[in-house]
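Allow me, if you will, to draw on your knowledge of protein folds for a short while. The matter concerns a single protein, recorded as an amino acid sequence and a row of backbone structure tokens. Could you please explain, in whatever detail you think fit, how the structure tokens follow from the sequence? I remain grateful for any guidance, and I place the record below:

…
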Amino acid sequence: MPISTSAESGAIPLLTIAVPTYNRSANLALLLRNLAPQIAQFPQVELLISDNASPDDTEPIVRRSIAEGLRCRYIRNSENLDADPNFLQCYEQAAGTYVWILGDDDVLFPGALSYILPYLSGEPVDIALVAALHFNHEPNETGLANPNPKVHLYKVPEAFLHSAMLRSDSDLILISSVIVNKDTIEREPHPDFTVGYRTQLVQLGWTFTAIKRLRRAVLFESGLLAVCGLDPTRMFDLARVFGVNWEFMARTFVGRDNPLYTTLLNEQLYSWFVTRWYGMRRNSNRTIIRDPVGQMKPFYGHLALFWVCVYPLLSWPMFPAGCWVILWRTLRRVDRLLHRLRPQRVG
């Protein structure tokens, strides 16, 4: 059974920041050093740490932080549940109206919560995306931290999806970029989120449910959040996770009959595969690539974008595929520039 330690309890929080962690105590310590002053400033924010039975010094670090005054609910699993169940535990245990699952190696810059919370405190938001900066050693090594980035409001799911997926630095797969309204999700009938176990995308269950019901969404431009990119190794089948499993989660939580299903598939082809596939293919020793066309064709073969955009990236030799990806990335940059001019700015 999990062991829980809580610094205090009280009213229902506005926001729960939930951190699933395993065996990365140094990263977690950096996150807590940056987050603790912000948590202290806002009693309406709950911090939850779900420790997946880390064998390192994660537990002493968390307990020392609590002893030093960090307001935190700490859950230590008696055994490693695997990543997807630990993510779901974070969502289910979160007491807040809003849930933000933050990777244990990511960092919120000073002022991030004071900037975000007013947007969550007024008219309800179903989902928010916080665009991220990337770092390898120091969170602000790019010098682009910004406590006052542009904010955009969306009231149409397709517009929000396209804008969110145009961010090559963060999209709906990056769990640290997504804040969801738990009340919105629990009002919408949905399959049990455990069906997402073993997909490595369990978080898409509640993300897609929120988008399916979307009435109001917010997108924060980059400057508030930094995600660590130091370990690019992805020792799993890329086509299965980001192709087949993405389609499975869209079909399960949105449904084939919903126009959003096709939108989600096209946006994934145009987003993840254009921005990331070629680089992972060039570094195939850091991942697993197994018959991507054969795996994806049954689920994406009815879409023109699969054949026009992604098929060449999956199957052509490296040089022509590299030329093709340059073309599509250029198109995406133009699209992103034009798209950023259209949304209504709310901040």
